[in-house]
Amino acid sequence: MSKKVEVYILAGFLGSGKTTLLTQMLQQEQAENRKVAVVMNELGKVSIDSDSIPDETPLSELFDGCICCTIQEKLESTMQGLLLDKDLDAIYIETTGAAHPIEVLDTVLSPIFANKFSEARIITLLDVLRWKDRDNLSIQVKQLIREQVKHADMLILNKTDLVSESEVSNIVFELQSINPHASTLLTTYAKIPENSWKRTKQIEKGSHSSAHVKDSLHLKTFVYQFSNKIDLDEFEDWLRNLPDSVYRIKGYLTFDHSNSIYLFQYSYGTPLYLKELVKVPLNLVIIGENLDVELLKEQLQSLDKNKQ
Ligand SMILES: Nc1nc2c(ncn2[C@@H]2O[C@H](COP(=O)(O)OP(=O)(O)OP(=O)(O)O)[C@@H](O)[C@H]2O)c(=O)[nH]1
Predict the structure, then answer these.
(1) CA-to-CA distance for 165 and 153, rounded, in angstroms?
(2) Does the C-beta of 230 come closer than 6 Å to ligand 1?
(3) Residues 138 and 74 in one domain
(4) CB distance 130 to ligand 1 below 6 Å
(5) Residue that finishes a domain, picked among 198, 229, 246
(6) Tens digits of per-residue pLDDT, 111-170?
(7) Is 292 in the same domain as 174?
(8) How many whole angstroms from 86 Cα to the centroid of ligand 1?
(9) How many angstroms does the Cα of residue 250 sit away from the middle of ligand 1?
């Protein structure tokens, strides 16, 4: 009989640190010469995160929807395909920030995979600053984050650099009352001890309320492709005036002041620019609730065409 494959489901709201964590996990797996595959699911058609996966890792990307509702069947067939590799040790599934982890787990536990997987663990990341300010979130998003916390086998409270120590203690207390069973870690940049996620105990899963993209969350993705260099100040003015319901922006930009391309990341009010070494299309992916796509398009076009 072929060996059983471990499955790790990385859950957590948009921008909580899943890709940051996955990158470290893959480095560790590589150092141990284990063979792993990654399944990534992004809302929207443009993948930014897959750039962070080492070239030799088999990668399946599921676009245009959220694993748990629109492309569950596709996930099933992707997993079947991955299992053809008899040497595979583990599969990592990075869910979109809008996925309900239990519904992803349900797919993994489908009868067609009986005895193929040794374990499937849910690792939930939480942006502690976003949690502290959760009153600014819509009821649906709050509910989704609670569900992601409630069903975690391992709970990683990330971005602790952005809140005070006493706030961290309060947050730990609040989260442990939602999920007293998960092993809980406090991190910055999702740095967790070597292999700690493999030692996590699996917790029996109770019922869950459904809070995902399809029925209650009106998350939309909008992709804009820039043709020109833009002005950094104008761009940051635009960012500052975005509604709170824009949860996440990722993409590539070029600015007047430089000849480089920048990877731009924005999550809960914090922008980050990193120089990109390869030439990539200048796509910007915007994710939020009830996005006014026409308005965003108009605003971005105006940033874009002000330049020669
Ligand atoms: N200040 C701070 N920033 C962090 C920390 N961890 C991650 N980030 C930043 O937060 C942003 C989002 O991190 P990702 O790892 O891409 O988050 P994600 O959950 O994969 O995001 P989605 O794919 O949109 O769901 C990036 O700019 C990270 O560099 C942290 O502990 N502290």
Answers:
(1) 24
(2) no
(3) yes
(4) no
(5) 198
(6) 677 778 887 889 999 999 999 999 988 888 888 899 889 889 999 999 999 999 999 999
(7) no
(8) 33
(9) 11
